[in-house]
Amino acid sequence: VTGPEQAAGDLVASLYRAHGLALIRLALMLTGDQATAEDVVQDAFLGFQRTGAGLRDQGKALSYLRTSVVNGCRSVHRARRRTFGGRVEPDPPVWSAEAEVIAEQDRREVLAAVSRLPVRAREILALRYYLDLPYDDIATTLGVSKGTVSSTISRALAALSRDLKEEL
Amino acid sequence: VSKLEDRLRDAYLGAADTVAPDSTRGLDEPVRRHAGAGLGRRWGRWGRSVLIPVGAAAAVTVIVVLAAMLVRAPGGPGILGGPAAAGGAPKFLIANQGGFPLQVRDAATGALVAQVPRPADNPAPRGVHTYINSVATGDGVSFLVSFYRNPCRSWVYQFRLNAQGQPSALTPFSAIPSTKSDLYGLTVSRNGQLVGYSTGACLGQSPPAPHVLAVANLGTGKTTRWTMTASNSVVSVSMTPDGRLLCYLGASGAGVIPTSAAAGPVAERGHTVVQAHRFGPSDAITFAVFSPDEKSLYFSTYTQLATGPGPGQIRVEDVATGRTRVVQSPIGSSIGLIGLVTADPSARYLLLELPSGNRSVKLGQLDLLTGKFRYLPSGWMGQFASVNW
Q: What's the start-to-end Cα distance of chain A, in Å?
């Protein structure tokens, strides 16, 4: 391992220690089960180390990883439709009563309602209300405009309001 | 903020809390199952390329404590004060598995003596996991602990152990207020007057905060900060017993900065003592700690081989001459990375985490004075996020 490769490895390890769990949790919001979430995050870190993107800037590295995780979750959704074809179901999502991992019914209901939203809306809501990212960062992560972020959040909240019978 | 938004946040936190830190696999562990296109098994790749850096990163959470077990300086706030530990190796160890409770373990037997629960008064919402970032002690009796929770908040609390190893309740450490950053690397001077630490950026922090080294002087109430370059991070921090020097381990090696230096860039106020590549192009340092007399710097190196981690060594450098020699290699029957390493308050006994086959680990004790090494009881086998004594 050469010096730059070692530095890359150190940075990857440092980033994983600091942010791996939070990224797994973000992936959990988007995929529904922990094993898949861990797969996605591991894949993101592998890609990060392989490409060396943003190695000299921790902020850019984090942004890169966040984008990779969101994209990876999106790929999982596509792969599930394409590969499993309904024949092999993934683990039940954490928000399902079947999974029995979230005790509070209200939380399950909210997450289940979110899971019925379009993928892009789910991504934006997770970035906004779980990671507390500002609109600018969400736009950068997803490669969309700030206006798209704003309008998607408005539409998603309106849809959730109807679904959960909760006033905005 | 609408009630719906509150429900959303609460639901997300509930989902996040289902993923406990000790339930996730590391980067070097295999993918559990096929999850979709492009997500294959990669044990081998990660095992070779990331295992060692992950081990080094684990050391991030380990604080090398230098404060000697000598009579404490009289006067001053002394909030870390307490009865000096008896001579010899420490009686108790503090371990954790990534979150509360902290475990107080008997150093001789490995037996669990007591647990330190999460502080009841901490403002982190219930149900939000808190991560232990570091634990430090100046005397083996009074401890500081820093912990973190998303999104982006760290706290420092303190507790004490009595002679039986029973802990007091955790109380806020007022000298270091809660901060919106990732605070770790606590280290304490012998007289308890100086507390060193490091802060770094949180997930999603925009713009990302640079890594900062800091020393809080409890006597004057003043905190001095030094900023790392954007491309450099801090792996661990330790302070000389007299509080004169702060030793930091960055990506490229170990450096030192006088605690009396004015605030500013680390690159200007400090200097590098040992660079990892001196020992080989694929070598790295996992911890560094000064001897109590500041004449020697002990550090651990390892060599990355194509087949995985190579032998780990404990080395010591004469600071005056720059000469380096190997203190111990290999250690015990270990052939791999020396993982977590901490020094006891006297800086005489190093606590080492050593690979032991079948992905298990053992803890060992190296006496730097006599050079004698011994494994701690087998009851110690297990995985810890950090272990301190």
A: 55
